Amino acid sequence: MSECPTTFFGTVLAVQANFYDVRADRWDDLPPAAEPPETPPGFPLQNPTPFPKRSLLCTRRTRLKKVGQRVVVGDRVRVEEADWPGDRGAISAVLPRETLLDRPPVANADRLLLVFAIEQPSLDPNQLSRFLIKAESTGIPVQLCLSKGDLVSEAERQDWCDRLADWGYAPIAISVEAGWGVDELRTKLSGHTTIVSGPSGVGKSSLINALIPEAQLRVARVSGKLQRGRHTTRHVELFELPGGGLLADTPGFNQPELDCEPEALMGYFPEIRRARGHCQFSDCRHRDEPDCRVRGDWERYELYLEVLAEAEAVAEARERERQKKGSRYKVKAGRDGQKELEPKLDRDKYRRESRRQQHQSLQDLCAELEDAERQEAREAAELDRPTWG
Ligand SMILES: Nc1nc2c(ncn2[C@@H]2O[C@H](COP(=O)(O)OP(=O)(O)OP(=O)(O)O)[C@@H](O)[C@H]2O)c(=O)[nH]1
Ligand SMILES: [Mg+2]
Ligand SMILES: [Zn+2]
After folding, report:
1. 167: number of Cβ within 10 Å
2. Model confidence over 259-271: pLDDT tens digits?
3. Ligand 1 lined by 229 (C-beta under 6 Å)
4. Which CATH number is 101-249's, of 3.40.50.720, 2.120.10.30, 3.20.20.390, 3.40.50.300?
5. Which of the two residues, 45 and 38, has the higher pLDDT score?
6. Is the pLDDT of residue 252 over 80?
7. 196 sits in which H/E element
8. What confidence score (pLDDT) does residue 93 get?
9. C or N: which end of the chain has fewer Cβ atoms within 10 Å?
10. For residue 44, what pLDDT is reported?
């Protein structure tokens, strides 16, 4: 197969240990190894793979490992030394990411599909709101889906849809069991890279199986008093939608951790985004500022105040920690005029210490400083990019 491309661009669909399943982006570049292997009549393939073959199992070049370049599901990558018959290739570069979700790690998603069951487990508006805030904080457009619609009356479904419309969302109600709503959702997701998320047991995997029968994801009965799922899904993988587009199932979780900045929070409420033009103050938190017109008569206003107070408490704690760290180090001018942090030393204690001890404690402090810097870099990186989950 000399005409096979040995270098191509593709998308990482799954990651298992140090192997990456990479799907080539363009079919027409690919080898005409299009014929399925001959099988004797009467012996159909057990698991027929689609032809022409389009994905390869790849490793990551050592150079990428050395510079700490991670490769995650959804990454667009360059593959070299593609060996099509041997099903091997090597990822040599990762293209810049459009988006990056942290937990689970997925790159380049442009849709978040938030699935909540109306019953089993019953829909908790507070929990849904927290998921929505978290989803909004990623900056990726959110589509809401109300699942297990067959378990309630049409009137109850409509009530939920109306209520969520007041919040600013346009949910799609579905029933995988009864088979309705799924087509509408398929049309919405076509051409997008979508992360399916939501609490455990709401039917995420069942929905993906309905959209993509080949996915054959495991589903499990919800159980116990809380009607929780069993966290059946444990790793992330992208599946191709028949009409184009990619879909990732994710493990369900029940309480998203909210760690957003207080001033960013209002941007995560459609109700506030809608009404912001009416508030005359540019830096208003819409709480007790006199004459604020955003404050008031919408359903989730109390929840907004509650989450705002939480976010402020987290921000204050973070600031206190930063100041504490700051007071342990002083800024001094380095040899090349650059500012450097130097640990402040307790003078009396310092004088009493032997040279060996001094050396030791400085080493400790340096290590501490390095740790603090690493932690700060981690925190900065975390704040810079969206996190989910
Ligand atoms: N009545 C009804 N049950 C459903 C529907 N969709 C899924 N279920 C059931 O809900 C249970 C949980 O479904 P899963 O698809 O495993 O849920 P999940 O969200 O993937 O759960 P985790 O992987 O734990 O996060 C299973 O017993 C499904 O059969 C539906 O439309 N109607
Ligand atoms: Mg699942
Ligand atoms: Zn205001």
Report:
1. 18
2. 889 999 999 999 9
3. yes
4. 3.40.50.300
5. 38
6. no
7. strand 193-197
8. 96
9. N
10. 39
Answer whether 121 contacts ligand 1 (Cβ < 6 A).
Answer: no
Domains of the chain, by residue range, sit at: 8-33+49-96, 101-249, 262-357
Q: Dihedral sign, CA of 91, 94, 98, 100?
A: positive
Compute, in angstroms, the gap from residue 186 CA to the centroid of ligand 2. 18
Does ligand 1 come within 6 angstroms of the Cβ of 204? yes
Position 389 pLDDT exceeds 50:
no
- For the segment 134-180, what is each residue's pLDDT rounded down to a tens digit? 999 999 999 999 999 999 999 999 999 999 999 999 999 999 999 99
Provide the mean pLDDT of the chain.
Answer: 81
Among 206, 239, 254, the mutation site with the greatest number of ligand 1 atoms within 8 A of its Cβ is 206
CATH architecture of the domain formed by 8-33+49-96: Beta Barrel (2.40)
Hey, is 133 helix, strand or coil? Answer: helix
List helix spans (H) across 141-286: 154-167, 182-189, 204-211, 262-265, 270-275
Q: Using the mean position of ligand 2's atoms as its centre, give its distance from the Cα of residue 1 in Å.
A: 40
Tokens 């140090």 -> residue: 18
Proportion of the chain in helix, strand, coil states, percent, rounded to 5: 35, 20, 45
- 130 CA distance to ligand 3 middle (Å): 22
Q: What was the pLDDT predicted at 296?
A: 81
Q: Taking the CB of residue 73, how many other CB atoms lie within 10 A of it?
A: 26
Give the global pTM: 0.76
Beta-strand relationship, 237-240 and 329-333:
unpaired
**How many angstroms separate the CA atoms of 136 and 360, rounded?**
48
